[in-house]
């Protein structure tokens, strides 16, 4: 059995509210930001655990994420459960097949704009779903550009996309900064920042790991490390 989430109750409630709104046709792209170890993945997993809809996952990996990698991973998860799930994309299906070979014969030629349109069609056809994209700080530029383009259309869908990223050490010219700016200009920026845990939450976290109650000095040391 998964352990109860420590802290982050307010953040979880905000995500759950977004998921309820998506069920009613008011979807969103939500960015989940925090330093390394802040609990972004744990929070997203808790949201998924309580979700009453399809949950799709994708993640970027440091130094080896292919173009559109996190988005393709999420769509592949949908195809595994629904082999005919993307058939409504019509002639765009061949362009999707360039990214998802299991769809069949790929289009002989394609370009960035057509791939964007094909991915837009694919996500529009998911219906009510929760898409979790992890470690976007390592994502390729193409994925971030597609997310920016999806921001407007997702608002009228039943889709909730939650993209988490490490906010510490993000270079000035990183694509995530452009993604945030693009969503902000469109009035679609939804971001939840995870602050470090407080002393009470740190004490509870340490107590779950150690067999004996932690000393106040150890708790303060853990809290200080969380803030570095």
Describe the structure.
The chain is α/β, with parallel strands linked by helices and 228 residues long. The chain has 2 domains: 9-195, 3-Layer(aba) Sandwich (Rossmann fold); 197-228, no CATH class. It contains 9 helices and 5 strands. The protein has helices spanning 9-23, 40-50, 69-81, 93-96, 112-124, 141-154, 175-185, 199-209, 216-227, and strands spanning 28-34, 54-59, 129-134, 159-166, 190-193. It has a 5-stranded parallel beta sheet with strand order 2-3-4-1-5. Strand 3, helix 6 (141-154) and strand 4 form a beta-alpha-beta unit. It is globular and about 65 Å long.
Order of helices and strands: HEHEHHHEHEHEHH
CATH fold name of the largest domain: Rossmann fold
The count of β-strands is: 5
CATH architecture of the largest domain: 3-Layer(aba) Sandwich
Q: What is the overall silhouette?
A: globular
Mean pLDDT: 87
Features:
228 residues, alpha/beta, Rossmann fold, 2 domains, 5 strands, 14% strand
Question: Quick summary of this structure?
Answer:
The chain is α/β, with parallel strands linked by helices. The protein has helices at 9-23, 40-50, 69-81, 93-96, 112-124, 141-154, 175-185, 199-209, 216-227; strands spanning 28-34, 54-59, 129-134, 159-166, 190-193. It has 2 domains: 9-195, P-loop containing nucleotide triphosphate hydrolases (Rossmann fold, 3-Layer(aba) Sandwich), CATH 3.40.50; 197-228, no CATH class.
């Amino acid at each position: 059995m998964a352990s109860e989430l420590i802290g982050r109750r307010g953040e979880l409630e905000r995500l759950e509210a977004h998921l309820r709104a998506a069920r009613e046709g008011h979807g969103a792209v939500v960015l989940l930001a925090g330093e390394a170890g802040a609990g972004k993945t744990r929070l997203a997993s808790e949201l998924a655990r309580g979700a009453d809809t399809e949950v799709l996952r994708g993640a970027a990996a440091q130094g080896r994420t292919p173009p559109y990698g996190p988005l393709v991973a999420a769509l592949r998860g949908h195809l595994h459960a629904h082999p005919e799930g993307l058939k409504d994309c019509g002639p765009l299906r061949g362009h999707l097949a360039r990214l998802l070979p299991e769809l069949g014969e790929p289009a002989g030629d394609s370009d960035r704009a057509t791939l964007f349109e094909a991915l837009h069609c694919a996500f529009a056809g998911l219906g009510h779903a929760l898409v979790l994209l992890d470690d976007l700080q390592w994502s390729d530029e193409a994925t971030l550009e597609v997310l920016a383009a999806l921001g407007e259309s997702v608002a009228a869908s039943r889709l909730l996309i939650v993209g988490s990223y490490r906010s510490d050490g993000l270079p000035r010219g990183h694509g995530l900064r452009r993604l945030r700016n693009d969503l902000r200009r469109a009035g679609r920026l939804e971001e939840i920042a995870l602050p470090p845990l407080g002393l009470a939450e740190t004490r509870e976290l340490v107590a779950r790991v150690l067999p004996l109650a932690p000393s106040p000095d150890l708790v303060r040391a853990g809290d200080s490390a969380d803030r570095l």
